[in-house]
Amino acid sequence: MTNKTHDIAVIGAGPAGLTAAIYAARGKYDILIIEKAVVGGTALMIDNLENYPGFPEGTKGYELAMKMEAQAKKFGAAFISDDAQNIKKENGIFKITCSSSSYLVRTVVIATGSKPVKLGVPGEEKLIGKGISWCATCDGAFFRNQPIAVVGGGNSALHEAIYLTRFASEVFVIHRRNEFRASPYLQDRLKTNPKIHLVLGSVVEKVIGEQKLEKIVIKKVADGSISELNVSGLFEAVGNTPNTGFCKDVLKLDEKGCIITDDSLESSEPGIFAVGDVRTTKLRQVATAVGDGAYVAAGLEKYLSK
Length: 306
Prior knowledge:
By secondary structure, the chain is of the alpha/beta class. It has 2 domains: 5-115 and 240-305, FAD/NAD(P)-binding domain; 118-236, FAD/NAD(P)-binding domain (3-Layer(bba) Sandwich), CATH 3.50.50. 24% of the residues lie in helices and 29% in strands. The strands form 4 sheets. Strands 1, 2, 3, 4, 5, 6 and 17 form a 7-stranded mixed sheet that branches. Strand 5 (93-98) and strand 6 (102-110) form a beta hairpin.
């Protein structure tokens, strides 16, 4: 641990965290960005971000993240590769203990996002990485000319399914309800794609395979009838869990484990703020994450000015 006390630590380098760092660093604050994995967060999974303002033809998630990273560095933000374990406040200063070191800061912005929810069905754990995935842009190319399935009914699931038609021979979209909750635009694209087959009112009961995924067992919600689908890949998009394990004993969380914030995006602990998917919010988009990152700058400045 160094003895230096930084103005702000941003934990997480997705769109929300990067934007917070850009705004704060531009304001001449001393910024640390702590990221345990790869800069960009879940934005890296987006092949074509079509609804982000200023890109009428869309933009790749990783390209946007790279530009944000370069912008944060341009204004002086320092990037640290480390995994936050806990946060403690001592004499008005926060101590962030990570896997490799500890850091002293005056304020904290938590932007750790969320992780995908697993189906929790028999056979799933054994076949992760052997046909089961949560990232179409990462793994889609492994399934060229093979049948695959996508589970989920929201925007993420439909985005994944549409993208995967570039590689797969056919894509089965499995959803427990008879209607999707995704945007009408995505639903139209889904229903007009000849490679996509809808399996509605159904859930995955089991996945089968030895060295790789071979088939999935499907159950109809209405009558409990069972059927099988022979697929080489299964992409799960049934929701996310916030990454708040390291701070759950410090901050107030909602019933889903998201950080509760006030109008300035400050948490229950003064001096700790939360932005993006990790906080309680009604909409989780790259644009809203960036909005959080910009908005939190005012709260940080007000707190630090004290």
